[in-house]
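In the previous chapter we treated chains in isolation. Here, by contrast, the input contains three separate entities that must be folded as one system, with a combined length of 1312 residues.
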Amino acid sequence: MTEFIQATAFGLLIGGVYALFASGLTLIFGVMKVINIAHGALLILAAFLAFTLWDQFGLDPLASIVITAPAMFVLGWALYVTAIGPLRSAPLSSTVLLTFGLALVFEAVMGLIWGNNSRAARPSYFDQSFDLSGIILPKAQVYAAIVAVLVLALLWLFLNRTWTGRAIRAASANMQGAALVGVNIARVSALTFAVGLATVGAAGSMVSVLYPFLPGSHYIWIARVLSIIVLGGLGSLQGAVLGAMLLGLAEVYTQTYISTEWATAVPYVLIFVVLFFRPQGLMGTRLREDVAV
Amino acid sequence: MSTVERIGLDRRLWRWVIALAAVLLIAYPLLSDDLFYQNMIILSLVLAVGAVGLNIIMGYAGYISLGQSAFIGLGAYTVGIATTRIGGDPFVWVPVAGLVAAAFAALLGVIAMRTRGFAFVIITIAALFILQIVAINWDSLTQGTSGITLPLPRWDISIQNWPFYYTLVALLGASLLLSWWIRRTKIGTGLLAIREDEDKAATIGIDTPVYKIIGFMASAVFLGMAGGVYGYYIAFIDPTAMFDIVISVQIILAVILGGRGTLWGPVLGAATIEPLNELANQQFGGGNSRLLIFGGLLTLTILLLPKGIIPSVRDLLERRTKRGRAALVGGRLGERRALNGRPATATGGTGRDLLEVKGLHKHFEGVRALDGCSFAVEEGTITGLIGPNGSGKTTAFNLIGGTMRADAGEVSFDGRRIDRLSPWRRAYAGLGRTFQITRVFTDMTVLENVVAPLRSFSWRQLRAGAVSGEEASRAEELLAFAGMAEYRDERAEALSFGQRKLVELAQVLMLDPKLILLDEPAGGINPTLIARIAEMIRELNAQGKTFLIVEHNMPLVLGLCEPVLVLASGECICTGTPDEIQRDPQVLDAYLGADFQLEEPVAAP
Amino acid sequence: MRGSKGHPGRSRLWFAALALAATALIAAGCGGDDDDSGDSSEPMTVGLSLPLTGEFSQPGKAAKQGYEVWAETVNEEGGLLGRQVELEIKDDGSDQNTVVADYNALIQKDDVDLLLGTFSSLLNLPASAAAERNRMLYVEPAGGAPEIFERDFQYGPFFTQQATADHQGDLFAEWVLALPANERPKTVAYAVLDDPFTVPVVDALRATFDEAGIENVYDETYPVSTSNFDSIANSIKSENPDMVINGSQFEDGIGFRRSLTKVGFEPKIFFQTNAPSFGEQYSDGVGVENTEGTFFAISHTPDADTPGNAEFVDKFEQKFGEPPAEDAADAYAAGQVLQAAVEGVGSIDDQLALADWLRENSVETILGPLEWEDTGAPIGEFLIGQWQNGTAEIVLPEDAATSDEIIAVRPQAE
């Protein structure tokens, strides 16, 4: 039983980070109908940034969010203006390929700048754990989960309690309608993309201390993010969080009870199962049927 | 110079270029024994086979697969496992490799059948990685990460790589042949239709899941064989190299760069990419520069040259030749030919109900579009369906045609319940419909548009030629009937709204339907065309076709249709002759208005 | 119609086609090799590919350093057969397709005189096949998976370490079984990276321990992409084994070790492949206090008392400012072996003669004497090291040991 509780604890803690990571992507899809395959590479980029800040200046990776998130925000805006924006009206296939290309470019650039060795930030608490009557909770994971929840809460507040957030949600629900009521679609799209990337910045800071990473690590994150959005349904923030938790748990349970070998297959198997049985995911918005007319 | 003649000239030139390239390709190993360039060409050939195959599912059908390298891996492992466990020459197992790849594509196609667009891409990525993981973990079969080592070839060293080289050349030739053949048959037009407008394609008899599976299998079979040859060539087969997503990216890049949907674009793309690959490896130290080059190329191509090289060049040339000339499509309506074939029977109903709709309910998030709607259409009639906006007319069409499912109620056609059938099965049963806003396949020619529909699912129909042969002649007849024969080779994109209506009608007629649903045939076109369409409807009706027409143009309805059904607030409130309808108080109240006066019915000539 | 003179677009196309055809023919004509007459004033080119980027970039770069030091040393002593050695190095990016293309290019396009191998069994497997097809001797410093030697090749491959993967843990296993009953482990857990090198090492250990009756309480193979070892460590902790064997490369070894600390489990005996042999990088990665008592297998240390080793280490430190990593030393040894074969036969024209020479002779290297079976698999004893007081010492075999004691039970485990 202890093993089960322990495994569940691990799964939930990881799920928190996954949730933060996936929130940006689902937000971006909601408004722009763009699946940003480069999300994984951008996560690793943020991790490298956090690592460098820690390595050169001793800045705690979790605290470095105040730098990485804004930095990624700016990068997001720049990316939108140069690459993503022009493709807003292009078919989905084009944006998938475009963002895949960007992911490779980022991987290459990271390799050229930082080299292909694996890195991990190792602040003082990196190998310590809280012991909760026999259940081990690694400190780094706990801190990361707390920060993830905080950032997600901030995101929720932003989306639901501010005018800009409302504009984003309006554009997500019905872009033409939102335009008609005066929402500046281009600006909202850019903002959404930038905010999405800011959350990736935060998630990246966490990843830098949780796992060793190198430029090529983004593939496994692409797999995770695709699995999460398929599970949770595109465009739904609650769905993304739920999907992320489920993925985290599924991975840990597979590793503990089935076999570590098949643990990496979990995101893909989930993709197949969900797309086969319930293509709209757990909480995804159903497209209106009369769109087919 | 007409478009046809100009295309002919360019084609001849193009053929010379290709013939020359082919001769060089075949002669190269005989002229030079440089293994380095041979190696480069071999890798380009594998990439080219992959690209030509991908073009079938991506270029024609519009479904992007990021998992094509899975077929390379499957092929390589088939040859590797069979050779090391069963024995025999690896080349003997190459065709089996193709079958394994095609089988897997079929399986994946069945699973992915319910998905569209992005979900399909995701499934292909997932399939690729799952295969890699299976290859790693199922080590009793695949030897896991240790990989399978194949014996070195035993032939004379002076032959060098010729068997690999020429087998791959043959595979490229075969895949090009397949791609060309698909494109010029109804399979090709069907795939293109799916790319343009999948839902519309379903209504003209295209069994979209089956077509997609066929396309996907076609993309896999030769690539699987090429993978088998490649595995033998490298002599070492392991999971990471054989299920490599970067190769998938290169294959996609080859198609996009060269020009998707064209026959030779993928080959051109592959021939450009592999040398770039080698350049990255040799000059810039591989690794990251390779990623930078391909990632950057992919990004830039999508942003700046999305059509690819060959189509862009073609557009450029077309623009040059067409400069200053008036478009054919701006001219007056052409002459119309009467429909030959069946003798005209008496107009009027036979008494039997061809279509019966009972208690249809359909709501959209609280709005009740149809609320217990029931009516029947008598065989042999031209029945009108009128009613105010929002009364549910188009929704009724959608439910009858199959593009939507009803929440409750029944639809019976020709004596059978059809409300559970897919749109194409309803087409096979004899139901055709047009759309309020015309839906034609803009990227295809007018003739191809009319050839695309499938009357019934048969192999014979599928492999019928799209531009020549029986089906094509039939399509030409129908185009002549609609007065659009001159436009047969024009791209549908160029047509005006009214011309598209005519083409859409010809499309529907290709199905040889018993009942034709027309959704506002007179909307947005000039009176001459309206009259012509009315003429066509009468002629077709005289030959036994039943019509159900939604219209707001009262003169047309009252002059052409009998009986007339009136829909209001989601139900059918009245049926009767045009006279009765005009006088019915309920109808006047709901739709026509108390002061309605008919100016002049559009009578038969 | 505008007239058959044709408009600019068409004639341009013709010209392009002809130009393309001409270029292709010329390229084909120039593709042939130049004849290499082995002129003694020409440099002796040695071609090799290494993973300088990608997954194996760390050891790849170390190997490059080792090769470079060897080339310099040879050239200072007059070169190989009187010719100055020139290294022609390519980067295969840790990718198998690239490594095959690289060796093909080196052999065909660059027309090198000799070859040296790349790093990792994964890459050496296809590379050695390319060498065999082209009938060139293949000497490699870092591919110890047994399958490499099971293909009946004639031109190699010769592995320039003391033993193949399946024998590298032999001395450690012997030591465990020789422990007195109260110190001998009763239970063991295995966590292995799915890699052609690590798997045979652990397989051999497992077979030995199974036969000796040490109970196998946890046995998992994890894929390369695993980055989170917490649940694995946790599962191991719940079994509480006396001994833990981790077949790792580098990243995963560090991650695994850290996870053990995180969950608070310290086995009495801990054996790890590869990672602990990386010196400071390892102790920095896991924390120096966590290294105590960790066993590992290694082929070389800077302190080893083998011929030429002290000079090698000096030269290396002068050139690169730090002591050589194991992979650098292995690469240097590969160079030595190649040199010995060439000098032993006296010419490079008959590559098969070079291979046969190695089959019949042993070579003195900085790793000690090396000799091979006909398959190219080495016959020798691998060194076993243990971290003690923050230093990586050699403990077995005794005549190579740099430390007298062997910690039988790790202090943290008490």
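DSSP finds 25 helices and twelve strands in chain B. The domain at 353-441+513-592 of chain B is CATH 3.40.50.300 (Rossmann fold). Compare these points with the single-chain example from earlier in the chapter.
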